[in-house]
Predict the structure.
Amino acid sequence: MNIDTFLQALANGVMLGFIYAAVALGLSLTLGVLGIVNMAHSALLILSSLLTWQLVNGFGLHPLLAFLVVIPAFLLIGAGVQRWLLRPIRRQPESSGLLLLFGLLIVVESLALAIWTTDPRTVRLEGISASISLGPITTTTNRLLAAAIGAVAALGLHLFLQRTMVGRATRAMADNSDAASALGIDTGRLSVLTFAIGVALAGLAGILIAMTFTFSPQEHVRWLAWAFLIVIVGGLGSVAATVTAGLAIGLTETFVGLLLPFQFVHLVIYALLATALIARGGGFMARSERRI
């Protein structure tokens, strides 16, 4: 492997890693703060991609303007799901919420298939699909933008959790919900906000997928596996853990793809996942207690 090939693979892996991290941010947030395994996460990702395709290819909206439509819509969807579906069963066994969200996954997938069928979709990227060359590294504007937006989303979530009063209250609720409530934190409203942000992050990641990949309604299973993979490898330590895991998987996928046939790439990644679970018992950056 010469230096040019190495630099190209490194750039591709980093860009892919930031996109992967964005895919897992919402799942990591809801699981880390609320202890909710959002089984519908991937279906919402693909729904966002399909809505982006409809807005851009169907209605002629610029791809970057799709963020202004999709993210607020998904914020409201997330708030509604938490407020009217999950909150009424919060005192029931955790399996009840898991089954409810799995049912939501089925509903979203069926709706997507009914409206958009199983055909693969590609978003028209007018104005943001040009090739860019930086020395030996060549990429496209849309891939670079998607990676940059993923990185900014991760940084924004980190700053929100670390530097704002609401973020500190969210971390307090993640550490001990009862103690946070005793201190006067409205954990009910904060739970709605947290889940809403998690779903909005899924909407953002869905747009990034639409900007970068070909997709179809039934492909959400792949992205659910990838999101869980990143959360497990990184653990529930912090936003930085999710980004680190995303970058690790993106770089591994890229470099292994240079050395082995494509069909072995995912096998190697899942072998690394097994190694992480055995060696660290919860991810490379796992901690003894749940924190965000």
Observations:
- The first helix runs from residue 3 to 34.
